Amino acid sequence: xxxxxxxxxxxxxxxxxxxxxxxxxxxxxxxxxxxxxxxxxxxxxxxxxxxxxxxxxxxxxxxxxxxxxxxxxxxxxxxxxxxxxxxxxxxxxxxxxxxxxxxxxxxxxxxxxxxxxxxxxxxxxxxxxxxxxxxxxxxxxxxxxxxxxxxxxxxxxxxx
Amino acid sequence: xxxxxxxxxxxxxxxxxxxxxxxxxxxxxxxxxxxxxxxxxxxxxxxxxxxxxxxxxxxxxxxxxxxxxxxxxxxxxxxxxxxxxxxxxxxxxxxxxxxxxxxxxxxxxxxxxxxxxxxxxxxxxxxxxxxxxxxxxxxxxxxxxxxxxxx
Lengths: 160, 151
Fold this sequence. Notes:
heterodimer; A: alpha+beta; Alpha-Beta Plaits; 2 domains; four-stranded antiparallel β-sheet; B: alpha+beta; 5 helices; 37% helix
């Protein structure tokens, strides 16, 4: 898997400015970096092919879009069951993210998941169902009290 | 959201067409004109329902490192501390959560050392250490696409 070359980086930086709502949006972005539209589109396709672009799409402002039931759930899974439980959680449509993370004495959870439901009540019910399904009773729901920041990561071409 | 809006959002949060006239392609898929697609998306953006229209990159493949970090912040310092955290461009998300560790934030920076420096700076600037850094060791699922239905 090769890393992006200089021209790929120009394309990546252009895309991060946002795809404009115009008839030929890629032509506009390409012009900004002195590339022709055809090459720009080919490079975007290749970046997606290589998995550097994970997903080609817009972001939704979740709360406004009616996704108020999202909750972070952390699980303390016996070490020998992490893989099995992680894979089982990953299969559930309500689970949007699931990661294994390091533990600390006061943070003994090794699996972190985001569970998505229509509202907080539905989320609580879904989490109970998941707990039963995976057979893990040591878990905690970390409800969001407030969103303090939400932004898009900024990627810049490394200096030579 | 009306049906057309929901349909468009459903398609393009997943798969924006990579071609010269992407909105015409979308228009054909949902049975309206190219201009209607563009004006519908413009309206959704004005109303704050959708944010930017740009790709989601894989940070690792761009040479970037990420972590999820958390810290214990006294209730009366939440606004001040979240202001300090938020000024770091490498912090992409920050949430106040119901837990002894109440402030949870994500860091995306060019390499593990850069991530470490952001954490050290925030500890120094806020005095709310130690920050727990929880970089993932394994991804079982990563899927931030939601089904969208018309109201």
